[in-house]
Amino acid sequence: MSFQPEYSEFLKKELARLDSGNADENKRARVVREKIMAVCNAPENPTYTKNLPENYGAVNVTARYRLFFKTHKEHNIVFFAWINDETAIHSSGDHGDSYQEFRRKLSNGEIEKYQHIVIDEERYTFNGAWGNSYIYIEYSRHYSNNTRLRSSGSLSLTQIKDREYQISSIEVDEEEKGLASDLLSRTFDRADKDGITVTFDLFLKTRNLDKSRHLLQKYDFEIFETDSDYELWIRNPKH
């Protein structure tokens, strides 16, 4: 079973920096996300074991960069804590500066630790009904042990034809907390039950394009047609 990824605040900021950087940095951000998916699919891969303190693992991003993480089996979570930047380039042969810097930060308490969030209440509201020209879906969570007491997301569906809807928008407060996955899962369960086809236009200039494709594939979307600017993905109901 695939694990869910969680990101430290440091990693979120580093990915945002790479996303807004030059072409090489953009490419590195894409590779980081690919590696995150690979780790979540098989976190116990022996190649990730690096003899690090506190059962941390690391995955090679490129020859010079390492992404450090810790698996929490009890919560089905992989927590991605830190990645080296240009100031701590990995040197092959002796685990190099990236590993030394991670150990130093860990011993100094500078590496963020995973905190499991207890969800007290979840609310999923389907505003409308199949057959309506527009449906608006709301999803929210209330927490008991986190400084953020509430997070929410929404999904808009527009009718294309009978029993077929297009996702016109999706928004979530905290995409790394699984909000998008839970929102989509509940919606597609309902679509399957009622025989509804769902489509999505994925524009090729979308930020985090690879991550969007991975999420679509996770929920059984397939590419129906492509254009120079976008891909049309379609999900037929599962019976």
Which features would summarize this protein structure in a list?
239 residues; alpha+beta; YaeB-like fold; Aminopeptidase; 2 domains; 7-stranded mixed β-sheet; 4-stranded mixed β-sheet; 5 helices; 35% strand
Textual characterization of the structure:
The chain has 239 residues and is α+β, with helices and mostly antiparallel strands. It has 2 domains: 4-107, RelE-like (YaeB-like fold, 2-Layer Sandwich); 119-235, 3-Layer(aba) Sandwich (Aminopeptidase), CATH 3.40.630.30. It has helices spanning 9-19, 23-41, 96-107, 179-193, 209-218; strands at residues 4-7, 57-62, 65-72, 77-83, 119-127, 134-143, 150-161, 164-172, 197-203, 222-226, 230-235. The strands form 2 sheets. A 7-stranded mixed sheet has the order 5-6-7-8-9-11-10, with helices on one face. Strands 1-4-3-2 form a 4-stranded mixed sheet, sandwiched between helices. The longest helix is centred in the N-terminal third of the chain and has 19 residues, at 23-41.
Helix share, percent: 25-40%
Shape: globular
Strand percentage, roughly? Answer: 25-35%
CATH class of the largest domain: Alpha Beta
Do you know the CATH topology of the largest domain? Aminopeptidase
Furnish the topology, listing elements before pairings.
Blueprint: E1 4-7, H1 9-19, H2 23-41, E2 57-62, E3 65-72, E4 77-83, H3 96-107, E5 119-127, E6 134-143, E7 150-161, E8 164-172, H4 179-193, E9 197-203, H5 209-218, E10 222-226, E11 230-235
Parallel strand pairs: 1-4, 8-9
Antiparallel strand pairs: 2-3, 3-4, 5-6, 6-7, 7-8, 9-11, 10-11
